[in-house]
Amino acid sequence: MCRGAYIRGAEYGRDTVKELVLPTVLELGYTLWDVTYTKIGADYHLEITIDSEDGIGIDDCERVHRAIDPILDEYDPIETFYYLEVSSPGIERELRTDEHIALMMGSEVEAKLFSAKDGRKSITGVLSSYENGEVVITADGEELRLLRSEISRLVTVYKEEN
Question: Which of 6, 30, 34, 42 shows a CA-CA span of 20 to 30 A to 78?
Answer without folding.
Answer: 30
